[in-house]
Each structure stands twice: as structure tokens, then as C-alpha cells.
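ok new one. same drill as before - C-alpha cells go in, u give me an amino acid for every spot. 422 of them this time. try not to just spam alanines like last time pls lmao
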């Protein structure tokens, strides 16, 4: 079946009561029924849905199966937030003394995680400009564990060329981890392009209405083939003492290797668990994501075209503008639209603040991906922790304004911006 049908039906069998809506299983624990079944469950012989909600919940499992199907992966793990998804994806393959390679064009919270928190754990981040791939190989050594980048970067709106990054990663036996939050699986499927792991902030377009915080990690089909026997990833290839010597790359769940280890080690030990109620909200959002992302993309392109023609706007960043430096990559990888995120530059900080204070339909909010349109000044909010040098590398200056274009009428949104800019 096609993605939109899977988004509504996949992974739910209507269970005992025949309910059309996916039930919310608000329970922390489950009756094992027998001592033998309980013991086998804790020995990883019975799956994860009915052990303890810290490692699996029936409502959350439906979201995980459904989202993995749409992304084109073998399995997914739902976690408490998008930042948890990124942190777990990295922590699943690294330890003190290791390093990762990451694009400079990332969400500010991701850069802070990589340069501050991971640094305190002894994990180094080495950055490369996503517009230039030649530097990547010079950053790789025997302690490198992955290459991390975003499908559409937030807020510089850069679209990478996947092919050379994947080629370099595969040459060195490295995993590629891609944040696909802004594009969503309806506009781009990095796993089908050859990437290994995808992360999402489900709080954005998946939910669509700013109601809940959550994250998702998805692994590609047959990822075990890249990890098994790979000396970079000893966690998966050596006996796990907390499971009596289990080797994850050889276990019955090796077809979902990456997310299974994350679930049974990191989730078990650190507990960044998605609430079943939030999982249910994301299931509802997923049903309409295909329709919403088309409208987001259509409105954003119309607004980008309006802004590009405005005499007070210095520059517009939207990859489906023919004048944008990312147009070739966007035409190659984003054939169904470029999502609702765009940014534009005005003369200075004072003018940017004046525009934010004058809009009436747009709201000044730090979130993205909402059905309602949002405006934000990145340098003073989401990327405020970065130094001037880091802001420059991320493509952010004081006159940059980020828009998350919603699904209101495009004429009303353009009129609101026209009045605010003057």
C-alpha cells in the first residue's frame, strides 16, 4: 500500500474491541500471566510491547510501526523528544574518546548538544560545511562513529547533496544519521537514498498542532549488515553483560538491530520515554501529514516568491526558488515540495525586531511545523547559545528571520508580512 494509506491503517489490527481509533493504553505495567512468560520477557524472548512501558507500550508500538513503514525503514523507536532522539542515536554508537562528524548547518539545540554535553562525556564533534564535502575525509579516524546532517537545515534552509556524503561514509564503514524533521518522509526518504538512521522531532510536522513533545529514530532495512563485524561498533558485536552475554548483532532481533539495542539498553537505563498519550496524538497527526505538508510547501513557496521580490528584503532562503544556491539539490531530492520552513534577511537587528512586533497572523514562537504560521528571530532565541563565529558558520546573521509557514490562506499570510515589512 502507499504511504497515505499506511499512515491511516498500518500496524493496527483493531484488537479485541474492534475500535476504529487506536486505543490509548495508559498503563505502566502488564500482567505476564505466568512466571515462565515473565522470565522469558525479561530475557528478550517475547518482544517489548508488554514488559514495561519504559521499553514498550501497545499504543507507542503502533506509532513506531507506522512511522517506520512510511520512512521506509525496518523499525523505529519513539522517545520523549526530538533532542532525546538525536542524543540516543549518537550515544548508541559512541563512548568517551570517540568522535562524530557533523554539518555546521544544524538546529542550534543540536549544535549545543554536540559541542557542550557530548564534550563533557568525552565525545568530540568535528564539523564540516555541508556545501563542501572535501573536508569530511580529513576529519575521519579510527574513533569516528558517524556523519550527522539535516535534510533541510534549520534555519539556514540548506539542502545537502546526499550522494557524496553517503559514498564517503560507506567507504569508511561509517553510519550516516540524518535529521529529517523539516522534510518529513513525504518530501524525502533518506533511508531509501542510502542513509542508515533517521531522527525526527515528532513535535513538529508529525504532530502538526504543537500539542505534544516527542521524537522518533528510524533505522534502514538490513542495517545489521553494515554493523556486524564492524570494529567501529563494538557495542553491537561484543557480549552485553547486562543480558548474560547476548550479542546484539547475532540475536533474533538483529533485523531491528539499531533501535532494539537503543530500546533495551539506553531506554532501559535512562528512560527518555514517550507518553502513550503523546504517542496517540502523533498517530492522529500522522494521518493528515501527507495533506498538511503539501499545503505547507505550497504556501511557503508563494511567500518566498513574494519576499524575493520585496525591495526591503536582502535575501530569501528557500530551496525551490530558482535563484537559491540549493535549487539543484532540492530539485534532485525534494521533488514533492520543500516544506514550510524558510528564512529571509533584512537590513539589521532593529528592522528584524520591528517586523516581528508588527505581524498579526504570524505568532512569535520558537517552534516549527505547526498548522499555524510562526515567525522567529533565530540569533536571539533558538541559536542564542552560539558564538558569533558559530552563528556565521550556521548561516545566521542578526537580520535573519525564520518563518514556519502554516496552512492558513496564503494571501492572508502575504498581506500580514507586507504590512509588517512596510
Amino acid at each position: 500500500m502507499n504511504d497515505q494509506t499506511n499512515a491511516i491503517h498500518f500496524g493496527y489490527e483493531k484488537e479485541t474491541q474492534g475500535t476504529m481509533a487506536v486505543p490509548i493504553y495508559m498503563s505502566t505495567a502488564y500482567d505476564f500471566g505466568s512466571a515462565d512468560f515473565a522470565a522469558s520477557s525479561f530475557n528478550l524472548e517475547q518482544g517489548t510491547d508488554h514488559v514495561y512501558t519504559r521499553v514498550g507500550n501497545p499504543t507507542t508500538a503502533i506509532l513506531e510501526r507506522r512511522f517506520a513503514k512510511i520512512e521506509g525503514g525496518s523499525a523505529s523507536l519513539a522517545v520523549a523528544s526530538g533532542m532525546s532522539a538525536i542524543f540516543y542515536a549518537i550515544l548508541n554508537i559512541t563512548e568517551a574518546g570517540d568522535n562524530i562528524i557533523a554539518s555546521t548547518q544544524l538546529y542550534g539545540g543540536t549544535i549545543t548538544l554536540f559541542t557542550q554535553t557530548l564534550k563533557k562525556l568525552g565525545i568530540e564533534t568535528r564539523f564540516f560545511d555541508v556545501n563542501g564535502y572535501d573536508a569530511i575525509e580529513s576529519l575521519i579516524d579510527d574513533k569516528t562513529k558517524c556523519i550527522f546532517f539535516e535534510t533541510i537545515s534549520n534555519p539556514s534552509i540548506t539542502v545537502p547533496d546526499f550522494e557524496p556524503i553517503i559514498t564517503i561514509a560507506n567507504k569508511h564503514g561509517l553510519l550516516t544519521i540524518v535529521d529529517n524533521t523539516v522534510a518529513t518522509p513525504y518530501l524525502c526518504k533518506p533511508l531509501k537514498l542510502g542513509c542508515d538512521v533517521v531522527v525526527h522531532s515528532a513535535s513538529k510536522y508529525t504532530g502538526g498542532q504543537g500539542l505534544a513533545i516527542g521524537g522518533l529514530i528510524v533505522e534502514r532495512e538490513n542495517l545489521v549488515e553494515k554493523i556486524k563485524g564492524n570494529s567501529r561498533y563494538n557495542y553491537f558485536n561484543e557480549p552485553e553483560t547486562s543480558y548474560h552475554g547476548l550479542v546484539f548483532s547475532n540475536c533474533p532481533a538483529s533485523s531491528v538491530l539499531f533501535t532494539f539495542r537503543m530500546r533495551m539498553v539506553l531506554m532501559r537505563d535512562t528512560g527518555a520515554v514517550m507518553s502513550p498519550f503523546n504517542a496517540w496524538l502523533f498517530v492522529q497527526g500522522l494521518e493528515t501529514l501527507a495533506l498538511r505538508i503539501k499545503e505547507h510547501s505550497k504556501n511557503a513557496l508563494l511567500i518566498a516568491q513574494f519576499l524575493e521580490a520585496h525591495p526591503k528584503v536582502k535575501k530569501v532562503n528557500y530551496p525551490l526558488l530558482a535563484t537559491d544556491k540549493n535549487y539543484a539539490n532540492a530539485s534532485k531530492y525534494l521533488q514533492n515540495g520543500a516544506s514550510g520552513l524558510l528564512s529571509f534577511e533584512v537590513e539589521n537587528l532593529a528592522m528584524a525586531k520591528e517586523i516581528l512586533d508588527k505581524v498579526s497572523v504570524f505568532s512569535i514562537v520558537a517552534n516549527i511545523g505547526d498548522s499555524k504560521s510562526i515567525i522567529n528571530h533565530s540569533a536571539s532565541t533558538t541559536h542564542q547559545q552560539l558564538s558569533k563565529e558559530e552563528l556565521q558558520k550556521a548561516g545566521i546573521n542578526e537580520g535573519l528571520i525564520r518563518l514556519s509557514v502554516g496552512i492558513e490562506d496564503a494571501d492572508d499570510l502575504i498581506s500580514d508580512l507586507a504590512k509588517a515589512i512596510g
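The CA atoms of residues 239 and 246 lie 5 Å apart. and btw The chain has a mean pLDDT of 93.
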